[in-house]
Amino acid sequence: MIDFFSGLLTPVIAVLAAYIAWQQWRTNNLRLKHELFERRHKLYEVITSFMANILARGTLDPNSEMQFLRDTKTAVFLFDRRIQQFIEETYHKAVELYTLGRMENTFTGEQLVHNVEEQRKIKDWFSEQLNTCTVRFSPFLSFGGDQTMNGSQRKLVLWVTI
Predict the structure, then answer these.
(1) Distance CA 16, CA 95 (A)
(2) Residue 4, class by beta-carbon neighbours within 10 Å (0-12 exposed, 13-18 middle, 19+ buried)?
């Protein structure tokens, strides 16, 4: 009888070790997803705050477009090419708006009207893009598509945030 149990001990230990290894892999995988989410969400916040600031103020603060470029430089590692192009387009629109705003005082008459119209078009573009940011970024800011977090994911998030 003792030989029987001692013969089972090795397979039981092997199964237990495999289970522990699988749990560690799963925890590390969830931690990676969480860290990726945190980094992506930070960029999402930078982008939407930048756009909201432009819309609230009607213009850009000096050098804010350069700060935006610095703050979003890691996007190449975190998002696909579409998001990277969106960030580049946002930057270029911001530079264009800043340039038009700086030149506004040098124009009169029809040139001034054209300048203001161009600024309005760019602000409208920012408004449209800000309204679609959630949809644009949602595939990158979820734990598996439209699914909510499962119990293990919630535990990991709570553990990491504590």
Answers:
(1) 59
(2) exposed
